[in-house]
Amino acid sequence: MQVLKADFEGSDGAKIFVESCRSTGFAVVTNHPIKRGLVDAVYAEWKEFFASDSKFDYLFNKDTQAGYFPFKSENAKGYSQKDLKEFFHVYEGQPFPAQLSKKTFELRMQLFELGQSLLRWLDEGTPPEVREHYSMPLDQMALGSKKNLFRIIHYPPLTGVEDAGAVRAAAHEDINLITLLPASTAMGLQVKDLAGDWHDVLGNYGDVVVNVGDMLQMASQNYFRSTTHQVVNPKAEAARGSRFSMPLFIHPYPEVKLSAQHTAASYLDERLSEIGLK
After folding, report:
1. How far apart are CA 172 and CA 271, in angstroms?
2. Could you give the residue ranges of the DSSP H alpha helices within 125-262?
């Protein structure tokens, strides 16, 4: 399985990006406008936040899904074991740590703008017979949506006494349209091919990894694949270190029709229940 690298400024960037999303459900975007210094600064602020007890002042709200989710809050669909992570959900207009700067929102906006461009590429790369089933152009589905989620994740160092079978993020598919992930602070992300084999997703620090979510798979009638992926536990010396990542999950606004059976709202509610967050 080969996840392709698409140069955002390259003449063939859109073609390569669509091809990779179509064949693997993933793509790596290079030469994009998001500055590495901003990514570094945001990671540094959240590293301090997760190391402080003030995170418990921002415990999540089950109705809004905003705020801090303590360690082992979430399980992948179909798994009883909780993932070995803690995380914070950043939503527009919802509580946000007072000690952090606005750089998180700056990065969130830049990622969303990049995502809008990538959704237009996907829309333009969709065959007409598939596109006619979209209820609206892909980039318009998320425009103005308050469901767009910036999730800041901390995977703590492993202790060596974790429950059998517990991993940093068990095999799963994302719920949303597309996910944008600035390169994480450590390796571990893997994607599963059609034969059931796992492959590391390789990207340089500064690249943005993008993957297709279930909502896009549904809207495109399986033309674009939402591919199973996981974050595996590190070994040896690497197990003693934390891993941070911060995916932006681009969601349609709730009324968007994805299929004859589901709006974005009905599908999101179903999936949140399955993973233990609602």
Report:
1. 11
2. 128-131, 138-141, 214-219
CA distance 223 to 127: 9
**DSSP readout, 142-159?**
STT-TT-EEEEEEEPPP-
Supply the pTM of this predicted model. 0.95
- Please answer whether residues 230 and 165 qualify as being in contact, where contact means their C-beta atoms are separated by less than 8 angstroms: no
Please tell me the distance from the alpha carbon of residue 248 to that of residue 115, in angstroms, as a whole number. Answer: 9
Q: For the chain, how many structural domains are there in total?
A: 1
CB-CB contact of 86 with 154 (8 Å): yes
Q: What is the pLDDT of residue 91?
A: 95
Would the CA dihedral through 7, 189, 201, 121 be positive or negative? negative
CATH number, residue 207:
2.60.120.330
Average pLDDT over residues 156-179: 93
* 1, pLDDT greater than 80: no
- The DSSP call for residue 65 is -
d(CA 252, CA 168): 27
State how far the Cα of 242 lies from the Cα of 48, in Å rounded to an integer: 12
Q: What's the maximum distance between 2 C-alpha atoms anywhere in the chain?
A: 53
Is-contact 168 232, C-beta < 8 A? yes
CA distance 81 to 168: 10
Could you list the residue range(s) of the whole structural domain that residue 268 is in? 5-274
How do residues 135-159 score in pLDDT, each as one tens digit? 999 999 999 899 999 999 999 999 9
Name the nearest CA neighbour of 272 among 100, 63, 80, 90.
63
Contacts of residue 11, Cβ cutoff 8 Å, sequence gap at least 6: none
Average pLDDT over residues 122-130: 97
Instruction: Please give the mean pLDDT across all residues of the chain.
Output: 94
CA dihedral (190, 226, 22, 12) positive or negative: negative
